[in-house]
Specification:
- With 60 residues, the chain is an all-alpha fold.
- The chain has one domain.
- Helix content is 65%, strand content 0%.
- Helix 1 crosses helix 4.
- The protein is globular.
- The model has no long low-confidence stretch (mean pLDDT 95).
């Protein structure tokens, strides 16, 4: 999965879940997730894996 594919999946999830909740369960700051959502930053590998695991339902 690429950063762009993860960003798209994340944006789709935000329709039904709050960014605050996702930030809490993934241990990624809301501001960092917001910047990622807007395409301003790429996620560090550990954050990428954490968000990917949460969004796909696969814990690594």
């Amino acid at each position: 999965m690429t950063q762009e594919e993860l960003r798209e999946l994340y944006n789709q999830r935000l329709v039904r879940e709050k960014q605050t909740y996702i930030a809490k369960v993934t241990h990624i700051s809301q501001s960092y997730l917001s910047q990622f959502r807007k395409g301003k930053v790429e996620l560090f590998p550990r954050y990428f894996e954490s968000l990917k695991a949460y969004l796909t339902g696969k814990n690594s």
